[in-house]
Queue: 2 jobs
Job 1
Amino acid sequence: MAPVALETPVHTNGASTPVSISKKAHAFDPATQQLPNIDPSKLTIKLNPELAAVPAPEKLTFGTIHTDHMLLLTFSPESGWSAPSIQPYGPMSIDPMASCIQYATNIFEGMKAYMGADGKPRLFRPDLNMARMKRSADKLALPPFDEQALLKLIKKLVLIEKRWIPTAPGCSLYIRPTMFGTRTGFGVTPSTHATLLVILSPSGPYFPGVVRPISLYAESRVRRAWPGGTGGFKLALNYAPTLGPTRDAAKMGYDQILWLFGEDDHLGEVGQMNAFVVLKQDDGSLEVVTPPLDGTILPGVTRHSVLDLTRAHSAESPIPGLPTDLVLHVVERDIPIAELIKYSETGKLAEVFGVGTAAVLVPINRIGYGEEGKEIKIEGGANGFGPIAKAVREELMAIQEARRPNAWSVPCEE
């Protein structure tokens, strides 16, 4: 019996025209094969004749609503990347033997679009997302792609869906580029076929309600990532194993997991965010610390931006809201949990916060550890924010929303 071809419905005025994807097995080697790459000039657009109502910003949660359209491309070893299509959002038919189902050959990115103060939809440092997505694709031996061509298509999709961009504080249009392997068969080999899609979701704050501090449970029994593993890449397979421990932490009254690693149980990520610690120094300066990119830590775009902002802080390039003469020592190094406990006990622990695309920046107010129910308490200012977290978050959002001119805020233009 011949295998069932993967079919992707293309909706036009309510009709559905299946597009079959060939399943012939070919060994794909990007070093020896020259196949068509993503070509934005071949984009076709089929607009949805029935547009959904845009919900009020106060009703938005994170990642539960989709916009009217999506971007879709497919790859085969015979013809390379297909002509890109922007079409109505809709379900997709996947072969049960597809490698994405059987072997988790799935990658994705998290980006956001904001409506700038100038009335233009904008993306935040999208080149970093595209570069990371390309690294993730290579990690899973998925087909290579032209990241600038994909970015051009993402901008076009955002422009088409710009009515969905919420302008309320803390809201944005979340962008989820995804690539998954569609080669059929049980052999553990690279996927010679793939689908690349981009969907959009108008979203409110990642943590519902007023922005507030969250609590963490320091997990030393389960390891999220390890050197030489996949923690430094944005792969779907990294996330599923974290769900059980996070559920268990919630039962103990904590919002998220503080992942630990190594014989010294040093800090890893905060849930799905990068971790930052601020330490008081004897001379009045502050040390801003984050774990190094050792292969266990995802190189977050927000992490990159926080490092850039804090390293540049000075009288000549201050972060608004911080004293211009405040000296910040910004370092990337391991912080064992025992060291964090000592800093807390000696009064040197000033702030702990997590950063990421979805949440931007969230302060931490307590960290549980050990089987005795011990906790590290972190004092915060107004709404639980310390001065570094508050100033950095406000500066990031001002740049993202183009209230502060910066090359990181990239307009989506025709």
Note: The two ends are 48 Å apart (CA to CA).
Job 2
Amino acid sequence: MGESRDTLTPEQRSLNMSKIRGKDTQPELLVRRLLHAKGYRYRLHGQARGGNLPGLPDLVFAGRHKVIFVNGCFWHFHDCTVGQHAPAANAEFWEAKRTRTRDRDAEQRAQLKESGWDVLTVWECELKNRSALEDQLTEFLERGAT
């Protein structure tokens, strides 16, 4: 059996953290495959005509003026059980880091909305129900701008 996360050495934890990706994650790839199969086309990682968008959204639908973020529940402090898990080791560091991420996310969403973009955040925990996820994505992309 593997070691508990709380018994890792700083070197082991650093190695583990270096393997975590910011782009092309499994949840993001799943959402991309779903949308592509439904005929939607998009740009990746905040690229829109005129430059990069605040927060570098995972998927950009420039013609619709819509963006989608695919967020990991733990990293972005979602209100589900995974997002609310508090690591025991170095607890203050993780609390501060995740709080900064949540606050930065809110600021970037506000900037996008002020610029006329419609924003959807898909949480990793929402990927479990594919039917509901497909409905949510389709409804978001097909409705008029808010």
Note: Strands lie at 43-44, 47-48, 51-52, 59-61, 66-71, 118-123.
